[in-house]
Amino acid sequence: MALRNPTGLHARPAKVFARAAAACPADVVVGKDGREVNGKSVLSVLTLDCHQGDEITIRTSGEGAEDALAALVRLVDSGLGEEGQG
Amino acid sequence: MSTRLMGRPAAPGAAVAPAFVVIPQIPLEDDLPKERTGTAEEETVRLRQALDVAEGQLRELSRTVEVTAGEEEAEIFEAHAEFAADPELARLAGEAIAEGASAERAVVEAFGTFRELLVASESEYLSARAADLDDVRDRVVNILLGRSATGEAPSVRSVIVAHELTPSQTASIPPDVIAAIVTETGSPTSHAAILARALGIPAVVSCAGLLDALGERRELVAVDGRTGEVVVGPAEAERDATARRAQEEETRREELAALRDKPGRTADGHRVELAANIAAIQHIPAAVEAGGEGSGLVRTEFLFLGRRTAPTVEEQVGFYAEVLRAFPRQRVVFRTLDVGADKPLPFVEREPEENPALGLRGIRLSLERPELFRDQLRALLRTRAAVAAEDAGRLAIMFPLVSKVDELVRARQVLRAVAEEERADLAGVEVGVMIEVPSAALGAGRLAAHADFLSIGTNDLLQYLFAADRLVGAVADLADVLEPDVLGLIRHVIEAGHAGGAWVGVCGEAAGDPTVAAALVGLGMDELSMTRVAIPEVKDALRRLTLEACREAVLAAIEEATDAVEARTILEDRLGTGLDSRPG
């Protein structure tokens, strides 16, 4: 899926994503350009250096994997809590 | 013998006090125990505990900083806490311990792995995070070594001197013993400088040769945070001069505070309303405290973003009433919902767009899907009725992203229809448009015929005028409100607005810069709405200038300057609004 929020997976949005992932019982893997990292780790997510418009993949496995995936996709789609500017 | 040094000014203020040198905390790697002495399990427990302690300290620090400095500064330490709590970091360090490393060594290695990845990314933002990582790493290692994680604090008021000062170090020294901060490295935008400004502590950064000049002596240091001048071992005359500057700064702080309840105007009495932008309910007390005369922009988006269902009319009334009550008798401009495909709402179904900035957003979306829009207008009118008997603010409504007259006419029709349903009287409710699309700026005259006010949203207007996204670092500098032709366009909007009987304001970041504010006033701007922190300085700057001086300066800038840099020089030379030439 494509990242729509202005900051990509940096700063606050990275934290918002990792926190949401950490709250899921399932394992969460985020990938960009073939590199995959633990989605629960904000440091790992940062190292992917994802910008607005980048395509990322999210994979989940284990307990509640489907729910976790749906929730995370929704979160990314909703802009990861970023407020716009006027 | 005194030594005079020059650094970059980072936070205004002046002070003379003994130096307190903060020793760099980066523990020499050779000092660290290389191999663990206990079992892997014991060492892993030590590691876990140290990470937990670090996380706890950082969350605590974040709360303290939120109170002393502010929310944005507190974010720095929230992010640090997340680093300390990172599961991958703990996993990497755990692996190193399993292979025989000490917890200290394991922490250094694990942080080092992430540091390399961040620095290798070529992203300026991520590279800058390396310093944050180092800060957290040192904290964890210090905890493991049983050292004070934050270094020593001086017992008397001192000038804090360091080669480099981490946010942790800055925040861990009690503000009342910090007379000033001077560092050999760093930039005015570094976290330490931001904290210093938020705390009102004078600071100078990039002051080369400082520690050499100081040597082993605990000398007096005189610091001027406005000029960047630092004198080590000042002579009596220099001490006196700095003490006088400090006194002047103190007087200035008091002067600015005393302006709180004074209206915005020029030296010759020309009235300019100085309002605060409000983007969250928590901003209100600070906006009032800063002397904001109402609000020229209440962003209502945050009521809608991040939720699964739309807020009810009642919920909205509760919020809007709180804003109106905060600004008795003053105007409060509510901008109706401004969302686009980049900020999709789960309760508004819509197609994704390739280019949300140019898509179905703002008033376009409100007219296309009027349900939310009608509810919001209903809530605003009900709020007005609910606070009518109180000494509350005056409701004004502003439509975002209007590009043509027809949109404004249709939006007003919707408002009238809702008012009829609510049996609400629209008399006294000002209705305006945000001028943020180039076509609206060009067509300001036609819009003014149907509007009570026009408010220039400089952020988006500049972005659209220059086709430059200000969040894209490589092109962000292209757009500048002081480009002579942009000033010319703003002059057109003001003249066309006034000719059509509308007052004209501005509600972008630009209004918070005293130089820009004076230029806009010179062009005839009636109202400036800005970030709350900028209000006192802008109010003070305008009260020292006549309308005529502002007008002459901005006309000279439009006619003589070839670009924004020159325009700024012309304005600051004539008005004395530059950072270094500001009075006090």
As a percent range, the share of strand residues of chain B is: 5-15%
Helix content of chain A: 25-40%
Helical region count of chain B? 23
Poorly predicted spans of chain A? none
Considering residues with a beta carbon less than 8 A from a beta carbon on another chain, report the largest interface and each chain's count. Answer: A-B, 32 and 47 residues
Distance between the termini of chain A: 26 Å
What overall geometry of chain B do the principal axes of the alpha carbons give?
globular
Provide the CATH topology of chain A: Histidine-containing Protein, Chain: A
Question: Would you state the CATH class of chain A?
Answer: Alpha Beta
Write down the domain tally of chain B: 3
Number of strands of chain A: 3
Largest sheet of chain A: 3 strands, antiparallel
How confident is the prediction overall: mean pLDDT of chain B? 88
Category from helices, strands and their pairing of chain A: alpha+beta
Q: Name the CATH superfamily classification of the largest domain in chain B.
A: Phosphoenolpyruvate-binding domains
Tell me, briefly, the overall form of chain A.
globular
Strand order of the largest sheet of chain B: 1-8-7-3-4-5-6-2
Proportion of strand residues of chain A: 15-25%
